[in-house]
Description:
Blueprint lengths: L1 H21 L3 H29 L7 H21 L8 H6 L3 H5 L5 H7 L8 H17 L6 H26 L6 H4 L2 H12 L9 H7 L10 H8 L8 H27 L11
Helix pairs in contact: 1-6, 2-3, 2-7, 3-7, 3-8, 3-12, 8-10, 8-13
Amino acid sequence: MDNIKILFRLYGQYAKMDLLWLLRDTRYFLLQLVSDAVTGICTVTGVFLLSVSFGNFSGMSREEVLFMMGYSVFLDGIYTVFFIGNNTSMVSRIIGRGQLDHIMIQPVPLWTQLLAQGFSPFSGSPLLILGTGISWYGAVKAGVAISPGWVFLFLFYGACSCLIMLSFLYLLSCTAFYSPAAAEEIAGTVRDLFSSLKTYPLGNMNGTVRGIFLTVIPIGLASWLPSLILLRTGERGGIYIPAAAAVLFTITLLFFKKGLNHYVLHGSPRYTGFGHR
Length: 277
């Protein structure tokens, strides 16, 4: 319970710093707002234009693709609000460069710091708001009956999708414990992988490839499958998403603990000949 209190206290401090950083001048605030909106729209425009041009794109109607694009931006919004700092987006970098030491010497549990460091509720909120708006509009156009239960499922699957993406990112980042120089940028590569591919529908894709994207490389669980379940009554796979999130999180936790034990014993040997960085 004390650690939870510490976490929320840290959230408050990071929120205050984020607001001060964003409002340091009005011009910068407006530039940040506009650039985030443009980035979010550009992220999904390509796939949506394909759906408009070809119709029933990859087994989804134009309205369903629009909802999927909104869900994808909503997921990016969750990420930018809670996890945009080095603690997550580049966790392999802080492991590979030995900067994990800076966190481990603090009188606060490691997990608390990793959860709190990327909290940016003000500068990260434009994508979250944009994704919510596009999702709502897409759901209405697709004829979805929006109810409190449906909204709960939308938020629940959003949390599961984010957990899947984060777990996969952390899982591959564990390689930085053992090969710091070669793997220090792998988190950014994984993040780009999801950013570039999660907006593509998988309906008409080869069954084997689709299976890979739903298991080994869980990109399809980040946006495509949750969108189908939320859009179509009776669509199978609803329990698979939270189950996959739980299993992947458990595997990641085991590998991270194992890598952390290795780090405690050996540290990061990358800069041994150059002194501490």
